[in-house]
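BUG: 3D viewer hangs when loading the predicted structure for this chain

Environment: internal workstation, default settings.
Expected: structure renders.
Actual: progress bar stalls at 90%.

Input used:
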Amino acid sequence: MGRFERAIVEAGGRQVFVERLRRVSPARGTILFVNGAVATTAALRWAVEALADYDLLMFDFPHLGVSCAHNPELSGVTRDAETAILAELVARYRPEFLAAQSWGGTSALAVLASTPGSIQRAIVASYSAGLTAPMRALTEALIEAIDRYDPAAAARLVIEGLGERLPAVARRLNERYFLRFDRSKAALVGRQLRDIARASFDEEAARWDLIEVPILFINGAADRFTPPKAAAPLAALCREPRFAVTPGAGHFLAMESPDACDHVARQINDFFLRQPARSLARRLA
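Structure tokens produced before the viewer hung:
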């Protein structure tokens, strides 16, 4: 499988937990993963076996997971702050590939617009051109549940909404994860969700035509919150977009079933292992 290396590093002025999996055999490159709004490195366990040809680089944003305890004075994490953190991690570790999920796609696309030298290709999964009506309704309901400090209600909203196609074990793990939120951690997540709800998609997308690398957008065929049709407008905003749909999958894609995991892994392998000629020429110049 390989060797895990874990460290706390400074990025964007915050302390960030980074987990790196180095394969025993020579890898085809390193994939840096960017999680969605409240996910941690635990959400990427599927990738350890499914993407055995790559070194994996995962991290927790400052207010989540292992990072949380190392940022006790943190009052909130904005999208700009997430982008700064991701940009520093890319500069530090120089991964060849970037893979983002859901709300993590915004910071990933912002970093790609700054043309980081090491990135050759990127994948953005479960992403849409702005918040869809179901996603906005869910976000607002989550904010209300967090404001009244009702972790059980927040857990139900996520599990019965975004996680409606997760297997029973994953649903229980997600429920326990939310129930462990204390008031201060819940407040941090609430501020982040407000930042997401207020964001202007047009402003975010204004610089995406500067992205030089090919991007594959993957959406689940059965995802009610970021359906494939909600990703279609992205075709006009990026220079080299590709699109894929995972049959029978919802918002959490690879986490939902072995078939979905196999499909996502095949899409990742097929896309990342094509060396873009333009990027190669730029590197050799």
